[in-house]
Design brief:
By secondary structure, the chain is mainly alpha-helical. It is built from 5 helices and no strands.
């Protein structure tokens, strides 16, 4: 693409790139959808493994709030500071993605209370992703809701919308 105009650069058509108008694409889509001889030739079922994302650290909190809430890093940290000062979350300037054993127990209790015991990890197989990076300082654990009973974001009616949204991101990631 041309940086100034956004149009395709000259010579691109020579490299097997087809440019269609919206009308031409609609005709093509209609032909494919109406084809009587179109058929699925094979279906493959594959086993996949997914691991939950690591608990939040400062940079991932900023990324999540930017992606999900459209907040800049400064605004995210300002809201997180307010949550920290009111005792809603642990310290938010950390590069350690590890939760303490106490925090893991609290999160497991919350998951069991909200979703049932059948969704808890049973300890079978490897749990990957909670290893501290070599350069991480061990002074603080990962960012998580504070306290011995985690409040669901919907319970926090005294918080502003921004605070509740940031807390919800922290809450969900801690439970993951």
């Amino acid at each position: 693409f041309d940086d100034a105009t956004g149009e395709l650069r000259e010579g691109v058509h020579d490299n097997h790139v087809c440019v269609y108008t919206q009308d031409a694409m609609q005709v093509l889509a209609d032909r494919v959808m109406g084809a009587e001889n179109a058929r699925v030739t094979s279906v493959e079922c594959k086993r996949t493994t997914r691991h939950p994302p690591s608990p939040l650290i400062t940079s991932t909190l900023q990324q999540e709030c930017g992606n999900r809430l459209g907040m800049g890093a400064g605004k995210t940290m300002s809201v997180a500071q307010q949550l920290y000062e009111t005792g809603m979350i642990t310290y938010m300037r950390t590069d350690n993605p590890v939760l303490s054993e106490e925090a893991v127990t609290i999160c497991r209790d919350t998951i069991e209370r909200e979703f049932g015991a059948d969704v808890l990890w049973d300890g079978e197989g490897a749990l990957i992703g909670n290893k501290k990076p070599k350069a991480a300082q061990a002074a603080h654990e990962a960012i998580r809701p504070s306290g011995t009973r985690l409040a669901h974001p919907d319970e926090l009616v005294t918080l502003s919308t921004e605070e509740r949204n940031v807390y919800a991101i922290i809450y969900r990631r801690a439970l993951a």
